[in-house]
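# step 3/5: fold
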Amino acid sequence: MLDMMHYIDRGGIIVYILIGLNIIGFTIMVWKFIVLAIARWQKEKIIKKILSFVGEHNLPTKQTSMQNAIDAQIKSMEFGLNTVKTIASIAPLLGLLGTVVGVLSAFDAISQQGLGDPAVFSSGISVALITTVAGLIVAIPHYIGYNYFMSLLDKIEIDIEKEVLEQL
């Protein structure tokens, strides 16, 4: 654990930003897991709500009304997933930013003290590698989580649409 804190400190502000984004993203994913589990458990209630919405409209617009009602339900369940997608997208970019900052620091050290001692520029290279790893560690699970939840939402949407059509 001490080594981990040492690496985090050496990575600097970018690693702390990535840790903050990681906490936000995982909180949203846990929340989405609970919300979607409840939605799957209360599917009949959602279907009744859609059927009552469709029943209020005339026959020619029933298909459009049904699709609009389903889309509204799915959109409400999607809320928050764009944040997870954004974290998955920007985490590697923040890691790359840290890489550039670290390499720049290494070149600054070399320009000031020369190449005689490798320890002069190793600190900057270390920052570069730490932030790159941190960016990927944050991005990969968020990317997987986003895709998992979107596929789960697609399945829920298909199931709801099928059952609504059967009951119309």
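# step 4/5: annotate
The chain is about 90% helix and 0% strand.
# step 5/5: archive (pending)
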